[in-house]
């Protein structure tokens, strides 16, 4: 995503000065915020289902399994929606494995990515009998072989290719350049297949690629898949059948008026075209695209503080609830819920955390706000609550899912006691 925090006015300033709807998925957001308090992460189940259905439609006729990237939003209800729709999961830790299984996602629909899988995590995934390990280093391949041998099982694995493609996204979420830590070069991968006999407890017959997140054009996907498909052909010609190709995730969403996203039909058409010669299974790992636009963060104005250049709009949400603006200078639309005052004002929109980086937007044109106003920060369904922390000893915010006029609390607001659970006052000492 282009750096967006220095808020140049969007093309359509009307949008910046309007109010957001007071109803979401048939639920009155004012009443919800009054009942559950703020900050509050809110997700529309209907919006998530609509995305799943659209992706399904685009994939019609393909032997494809969608493995939702759990890291985007890993609460039990969201994972449960994915499970209910027959999706699998892309996980990156034993914690995500546990969450996915508990939410009812069958192990045989789970793929495991990540450069730092520990032996214990590999053991847990082997014991669960997951679908596939997406391997990112020779050391990991060797570890997997040893751990599978110890259990007398055959692990299914893919090699994650680093195609050295520029995903044209923010540097911090780009994963497919040679200098990034992810995947291995084609040369390295070639060596693995040549030495496949050395790893008798690993069935290495898959290719995986994931070049980054919030990708807004189809060309980087095409480039990456061309490399993957050429490699598939080479391997198959050399006697190494490839049973599955995992194209990762990365499809971007609209955070801001004017963002040009790739239509899911075009994305899938590019995959179909690039992998037309592949007659095995297709795996996809979308995260953000399935959930981002289904979520909003409700927050109240604590106060309006005069500033040297413009007023600060101080919210009760902070960078610990939504880290994206401070981490990536990411733009999120902000709007009053339901009704807006007629006059507008430019604000620096900030949270209460003791860092200047705790800023949601700079120089943002908004309807004039007053203490107690309910605002909505939009497009927070992905990488919002799942990246939250308790920094500044701010308990984790509640999360609620809406569905056709009803709501269910997925996580109640963390209590102070829960926030410090597991901490001790160092009152019990052991001899080292
Ligand atoms: C291996 C892998 N797969 C899938 C995803 C999901 O990405 P996105 O949320 O952009 O679809 C990620 C995160 O970028 C990832 O690292
Ligand atoms: N956390 C990032 C996305 C990371 C993708 C993980 N592979 C974001 O909010 O944009």
TrEMBL record:
Pfam families: Orn_Arg_deC_N. It catalyses: meso-2,6-diaminopimelate + H(+) = L-lysine + CO2. Its EC number is 4.1.1.20. InterPro entries: Ala_racemase/Decarboxylase_C, DAP_deCOOHase_LysA, De-COase2_N, De-COase2_pyr-phos_BS, Orn/DAP/Arg_de-COase, PLP-binding_barrel. Pyridoxal 5'-phosphate binds at residues 250, 285-288, 383. The active site is at 354 (proton donor). The modification N6-(pyridoxal phosphate)lysine is found at residue 71. PROSITE patterns: ODR_DC_2_1. Its cofactor is pyridoxal 5'-phosphate. It is an enzyme of class 4 (lyase). Keywords: Amino-acid biosynthesis, Decarboxylase, Lyase, Lysine biosynthesis, Pyridoxal phosphate. GO terms for biological process: lysine biosynthetic process via diaminopimelate. Substrate binds at residues 288, 324, 328, 355, 383. One of its GO terms (molecular function) is diaminopimelate decarboxylase activity. Specifically catalyzes the decarboxylation of meso-diaminopimelate (meso-DAP) to L-lysine. This is Diaminopimelate decarboxylase. It comes from Fulvimonas soli.
